[in-house]
Amino acid sequence: MSVQVETPSDEDIKLDVIKQMKWDARIDASDVSITVNNGEVSISGQVPSLTAKSAATNDAYLVEGVSTVKNELNIEFPDTETVPTDKQIEDNVVTALALDGDLKSYKIDVDVNQGWVTLEGTVDAYWEKIHAKNEVLELSGVIGVTNNLGVVPTGDYMDESIAKDIINALERNVHIFADDVNVRVEDGNVTLEGTVETSKAKNAAFDSALYTPGVVSVDNKIMVV
């Protein structure tokens, strides 16, 4: 006998996302608005930190029925907080990247404009590009990052070999049914398509591509249904 699972309504999803954010001590949700359309969550308003903005996205993805999250929150630092100048932020970014064991060998140019950081240069792997952005997002005063780092793998990688490695990684992953995911690779640029049941599975598929040697970029078009 098959059991039919009821899909949460948009209103149910919205209420659960709101409850999740009100529960999360990292977020002051008093100025946050939530809308949901066919499982697609849009978040707007303002929060006092980048940590809160990132937490809002993560919290929304934890709710059953959420397929995608569009986070348009603005960051408004409290008047009581001393915000670093752009020059101080730039110095902190340069220092952080120079001290990072995975990134210190690269020449990465940094520009900061009103707390928004732009990274230029090249790295050997796509995961290093993502790692650099995440490293910067942890720094005080940063409100966002434009990641213009190019990825130039040091080895010669065939698209077919890259795709095979990703598929093998998917098959080893306990959170994914590999047959649900279609993998396409063109010049190292990976596109993931298909449908999965949870955001956790979608993220696991992304990681399977992210850490595969030879990957230049990942476009995760997997839908959560």
UniProtKB/TrEMBL annotation:
Residues 9-77, 85-153, 158-225 form the BON domain. It comes from Fodinibius halophilus. Gene3D superfamilies: 3.30.1340.30. PROSITE patterns: BON. Transmembrane segments: none annotated. This is BON domain-containing protein.
